[in-house]
Write a structure and sequence with these properties.
Length: 207
């Protein structure tokens, strides 16, 4: 049980750190949640896209990395460096927080338009491939095959929790996310998670 918990919660932590950021996708999900416009479909679609890309990344990159010991060692240090820089970026954002703004004045979108817009803000964003296929795939590839599955599962769960939280809690979350202090706290929390996991990767690399 404990062997499963570590990669699962690390997957959740890293996945959440990558997903929870101000951007077009989150703004769109939150907006549709506020307007109660196909919000469950949109949250499901965003989560499904993440799940597919995370699975491809963890499975494909994982197999490649574990088949080459030197590459595995390199990705440990590379992953630790990325997480350190990402954590530093989160701490810097906490010092100068932004806010998430949403549009509520337009009429409701049609089902087709909602789906096409969701696909656009998701799949046309190059960062989604970097975050899911490359970064999560590289970090997940450092685990044995059985643990790698739980790492990916944790990242997928964090995606589902985040997007449905945005949709279901939009009425409550919108005013909260308009306050810089909320992002200050959230960014600080993400920074701590990123640095903690980065340290664990360094310890694995030197052991």
């Amino acid at each position: 049980m404990f062997g499963i918990a570590a990669p699962f919660f690390q997957g959740m932590g890293i996945g959440a750190g990558l997903i929870i950021a101000i951007g077009a996708q989150n703004a769109y999900v939150l907006t549709q949640g506020l307007r109660r416009n196909n919000q469950y479909l949109i949250a499901s679609l965003c989560s499904f896209i993440d799940a597919v890309l995370i699975t491809v990344g963890v499975a494909g990159m994982g197999v490649l990395i574990t088949s080459i010991p030197l590459l595995l060692h390199f990705t440990m240090w590379g992953g630790a460096l990325f997480l350190f820089v990402y954590g530093l970026k989160a701490f810097k954002s906490a010092l100068n927080p932004d806010v998430l703004t949403v549009e509520q004045n337009r009429g409701p979108d049609t089902l087709i338009k909602a789906v096409l817009t969701t696909l656009a803000v998701s799949l046309l964003n190059p960062h989604i491939y970097l975050d899911t296929v490359i970064l999560l795939g590289s970090i997940g590839g450092q685990y044995p095959a059985d643990s790698r599955i739980w790492f990916g599962a944790g990242a997928v769960v964090s995606s589902f929790l985040w997007f449905f939280s945005l949709s279901l809690g939009a009425q409550w979350l919108a005013p909260l996310f308009k306050r810089p202090i909320a992002w200050r706290i959230l960014d600080s929390f993400i920074g701590v998670i990123m640095w903690t996991i980065a340290l664990s990767l360094v310890m694995k690399a030197v052991s």
